[in-house]
Specification:
Layout lengths: L15 E6 L3 H17 L7 E6 L5 H10 L5 E9 L5 H20 L3 E8 L2 H7 E3 L2 E2 H30 L19
């Protein structure tokens, strides 16, 4: 039987950052509300949630990277809504934002969650921000909680293995997947 390692959805004593796009704010405010309510429901204190508003989705990666590198946050949630228009502009934004956020997570070891809607229509965005498809802000917060706790478990296992082998351990639990740890 395989050994299953999962993160729980608990956040007591942790601090989270949320960067959210002001563009399409009728949608993004609902995503933010869902994310904040979910974090609070899982034990995160109200004053342990920092929200950074940015003009649009394009600006999310820069702020998310700054937040992740600050060392203050267990995870950074990124919320936005990019809706297809008459040109391919949305595709360029979506691609760069998703690649940048993924790179930031890998390089910093801090979970950076992609809660940016990439919809074909306003109707789709409404459905995904509290409508009949749920609220992707809620899902983003749940994923953040799980990832933080999973990384803590993986770090504990790594440290226990290192101590058993006499090679030390310790360190920042958010640095589990840094490239320098690849051999561990």
């Amino acid at each position: 039987m395989p050994h299953i390692i999962e993160g729980e959805r608990t956040g007591a004593g942790m601090r989270f950052a949320i960067t959210v796009s002001r563009y399409n704010d009728t949608i993004t405010r609902k995503l933010l509300s869902g994310a904040v309510e979910t974090l609070l429901a899982h034990g995160v204190a109200d004053d342990a949630i920092d929200v950074a508003w940015v003009p649009g989705a394009w600006e999310i990666p820069l702020v998310a990277e700054r937040l992740a590198r600050s060392g203050r946050y267990a995870a950074v949630l990124c919320l936005g809504a990019v809706i297809r228009g008459e040109t391919t502009h949305d595709q360029h934004i979506n691609r760069q934002v998703s690649l940048s956020l993924g790179r930031t997570a890998v390089e910093t070891g801090v979970p950076v969650l992609f809660g940016v809607l990439t919809c074909n229509s306003l109707e789709q965005a409404i459905h995904r921000s509290g409508g009949n498809v749920g609220n992707k802000g809620v899902e983003c917060a749940e994923a953040a909680l799980e990832m933080v706790n999973l990384l803590k478990k993986l770090t504990s296992q790594r440290d226990a293995g290192c101590e058993a082998q006499g090679t030390g351990g310790g360190g920042n639990p958010n640095q589990v997947f840094k490239r320098s740890d690849a051999a561990v």
